[in-house]
Amino acid sequence: MELPASMNYPDITGTWKSSGEAGWNLNTTIQDVTVGENTWVFASQQGPVVKGFKLFRQPYGPDVNQTVLGIFDPDGKSLTIIDQPGGWAKATFTGPDTMFVVLTYASGKDTGGNSFALTMMLHRVKGTV
């Protein structure tokens, strides 16, 4: 589906840092997971499509850098994002410089074979592009 060229999407290029992170592993039980600060960088945007990467530290592993691609919903108030290992996120804007993110993974190497979910707020770092 081609989106109308006249639609305006907010410019979200720049650096965004997280707060209020919470995570859960799902297997035969549900376990709380400590989630540290995330830094998401949206390096470019063309209309509804944003491209960039995210940086974070795994609870029991190394720092991680993953490529992300996001597409705005037609209303311009939310964004669906996929990352390079296959996680899906829904970001909903709560203000021009704040978004609430829900991220899920079905399972895989990065989650120790568990399904995983997390929530966090992302805040735009002023003066970044």
Features of the shown structure:
129 residues; Lipocalin; 8-stranded antiparallel barrel; 9 strands
Task: Present the secondary structure layout.
Elements lengths: L13 E13 L3 E4 L5 E8 L2 E9 L5 E10 L5 E6 L4 E8 L2 E8 L9 E10 L5
Summarize the structure.
With 129 residues, this protein is mainly β. The chain has strands at residues 14-26, 30-33, 39-46, 49-57, 63-72, 78-83, 88-95, 98-105, 115-124.
Could you please describe the fold and organization of this structure?
This protein has strands spanning 14-26, 30-33, 39-46, 49-57, 63-72, 78-83, 88-95, 98-105, 115-124. It is mostly beta strands and 129 residues long. It has one domain (14-124): Lipocalin (Beta Barrel), CATH 2.40.128. The chain has an 8-stranded antiparallel barrel. The radius of gyration is 15 Å and the shape is globular. The mean pLDDT is 89.
Shape: globular
Count of distinct structural domains = 1
Radius of gyration: 15 Å
Unreliable segments (pLDDT under 50, ≥5 consecutive)? none
Strand content is over 45%
The number of helical elements comes to: 0
Name of the CATH class = Mainly Beta
C-alpha termini separation: 29 Å
- Give the fraction of residues assigned to helices: under 10%
Give the CATH architecture: Beta Barrel
Class inferred from helices and paired strands:
mainly beta
The count of β-strands is 9
Spatial order of the strands forming the largest sheet: 1-3-4-5-6-7-8-9
Mean pLDDT: 89
**CATH topology group:** Lipocalin
